[in-house]
Design brief:
heterodimer; A: CBS-domain; Alpha-Beta Plaits; elongated; B: alpha/beta; Arginase, Chain A
Chain lengths: 215, 385
Amino acid sequence: MIIESIMNTSVPTLTPTNSIKDALQLLKEKRIRHIPIVNSEQEVLGVVTDRDLKEATPSSLASIENLEVLDLPLEQIMTKNPMTGHPLDFVEEAASIFYDNRIGCLPIVSQGKLVGMITESDLLYKFIELTGVHQPGSHIEIRVPNRTGILYEVAKVFYEQNINVLSVLVYPDKVDSNSKILVLRVETINPLKLIEAIRAAGFEVLWPSLPGTRL
Amino acid sequence: MKKNAVFVFSENQLGYKFSDTHPFNQKRLSLTVDLLKEMKALSLSDIVEPRIATDEELSLVHDSSYIEIVKKASIDSGDSSIYEPYGIGTEDTPTFPNMHEASASLVGGTLTAVDYVMEGKATHAINLGGGLHHGFRGRASGFCIYNDSSVAIKYMQEKYNARVLYIDTDAHHGDGVQWSFYDDPNVCTISIHETGRYLFPGTGNITERGTGEGFGTSFNFPVDAFTEDESFLEIYRTAFREIVEHFKPDVILSQNGADAHYFDPLTHLYGTMNIYKEIPKLAHELAHEFCDGKWIAVGGGGYDIWRVVPRAWSLLWMEMNDFKTPEGRLPKAWLDRWSKESPVPFIPTWMDPNPLYETIPRKLEITEKNKQMLDKALYMIRNHQ
């Protein structure tokens, strides 16, 4: 999956000469936390975040006389030359950039111009979608031997039971390094017959388990 | 004369039947009606025939293209590939003859119940054939084709201009109803269910609070697997009362799935009959305190149709009619009549034996976690006060 398919394309922006007050207003209005700062060519010059703004403005507990600070231009507080991404980057790559650099947003730039943005929340939502929990389904965990063709064997059981698989995640098995844990979401409210069939095929079902055994 | 309560039922409701081996089995209605008659708690004059919902009524929440597909599947189960995108013809909701009529009649039953209450002909009404809370606008899911509760809520809004509170104690999240009114500030949905981490449908997190104008009118209380009576009831009582006081509904619609019981084969909660004694008490009390008595109850899940559902739903009807909570043994005639058919030995008493199961090692932690969840889910309305 590439960034282009998940990025937000209508991104509110400001220019370096806009004031801190403008930025505060925009954050509040749009309920966002990051603003790319661009010039008239839509080239990204910096990023201003809600944290930059909090650091630059007086405490909400202080007296409100010292407000000229709100008129200062964003140029003075923005992070210059921020990390950017490309629409054709992979979502996984973007996730690593977020994690390694501990940043909260990534302006997406193509041919030198801002074309979109993704935030940590957008990425997190994508990963929620990958786990399949946004569609009605049941959760099944199976321990399988780590060898070629195992997914085929497991999938065959689902095929025979006529049950649609919404998502598959493969985890390392912390207990047994010769195994993997498959976490599947399947489109049924009644996984009982399916579980019997998985057991009959020789696999260990970790969830749903007999009540009590996982406590 | 205004009746206290009506019981919507007809043998036709048993026609909502996927197959002989399917876990959703409306024989539980026959078992319940028979038990109530044996208790002399249900007489012919209490029973009202359900009507069939019209296409126009179904369209209050369902897409007309979906209704057409269900109609088609009723007469022609041939090519399942055209039905599958609509969630029909699957293992959960296979096609069956007359599935449209059977499903529309369950919706009609809930509408009949609604009309009795909203026109002032009865204070309370019950349709145990309803409660199909997983039905979506254009898709069947989790044994549910049409969503009777969603249709009924929309119908109450349009016809009676009512502000409706929906409370769902089925062990599965009431997703279909929640999403139908997710952006509507005049409908409040509450669902208490086993956490979606482990149980179908997977949604129902406390962070699902509604959207846009409807933000703050969806409430979810996902309890941990192995939750027992006390913790379940603490959440139910606290949440239900605080939300009713906050939302001030005109009418309460309760979904009474009976699958949070220890015996239920599809879920992992550890409720006993005690919760089914207590759940209707509070619904009854709050309906009188806030809604002039207006309370409509529907059924829902419940897959131990022998040992759990008949007792649970009988307790619901008896509470609705101010019968004294029955104690001791179930009527012998009823036990004799059904024990030959039942694949499991009956619990011969109204309440479950104590203890019903071995002690849960992590009870304290589960209770604590549920309590924390409760406070988080109610944080917003508590802060408004």
